[in-house]
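Postdoc handover notes: sequence design on the structure in folder B. Input tokens:
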């Protein structure tokens, strides 16, 4: 039979073994809970935090893309991804709008330059037309002059012909400077060149 001290020692030993067993089970449960919380809670939060930092730094392609069985975290990750996609689309639309605005500005500046060229061409053509009017007027007077020989009259007719061709070109320049719509015509360049 066991003495009282031996019975107490045996009971203590048994309690010690139970306590170690429970501690081991508790340790394994705690290890499992830690691993599960790491996978289900901490990793998704870390992914969301990292994506938030990237988005704040200007990376509009940042996505949380977390998958967890915790519905609230899963929903939070999806909401973040939707928000990031909306920001990315908004920024793309802003950049497209800015590019279109720059294109319009460039077209406007080009139109201003063309307008200035048109006004300059119109001014020059107007002055040239005035000179041609005088030249053609003198040609008419010389052709009707009875003291002029036929050879000289032929030369004056050539000057008049060249003046009329120049007057036609001047009218085209004036039409361009006023932005008039001119009816295009098919020309035979051989006839025009040989007529000069």
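Designed sequence:
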């Amino acid at each position: 039979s066991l003495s009282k001290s031996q019975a107490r020692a045996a009971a203590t030993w048994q309690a010690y073994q139970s306590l170690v067993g429970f501690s081991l089970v508790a340790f394994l449960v705690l290890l499992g809970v830690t691993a599960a919380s790491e996978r289900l809670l901490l990793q998704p939060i870390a992914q969301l935090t990292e994506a938030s930092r990237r988005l704040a730094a200007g990376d509009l392609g940042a996505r949380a893309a977390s998958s967890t069985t915790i519905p609230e975290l899963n929903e939070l990750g999806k909401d973040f991804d939707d928000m990031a996609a909306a920001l990315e689309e908004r920024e793309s639309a802003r950049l497209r709008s800015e590019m279109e605005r720059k294109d319009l500005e460039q077209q406007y500046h080009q139109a201003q330059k063309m307008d200035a060229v048109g006004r300059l061409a119109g001014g020059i053509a107007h002055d040239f037309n005035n000179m041609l009017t005088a030249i053609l007027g003198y040609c008419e007077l010389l052709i009707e002059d009875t003291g002029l020989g036929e050879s000289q009259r032929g030369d004056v007719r050539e000057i008049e012909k060249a003046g009329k061709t120049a007057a036609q070109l001047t009218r085209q320049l004036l039409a361009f400077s006023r932005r008039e719509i001119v009816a295009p015509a098919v020309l035979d360049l051989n006839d025009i060149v040989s007529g000069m």
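Context for whoever picks this up: Residues 71-144 form the longest helix (74 residues). Don't rerun without checking with the PI first.
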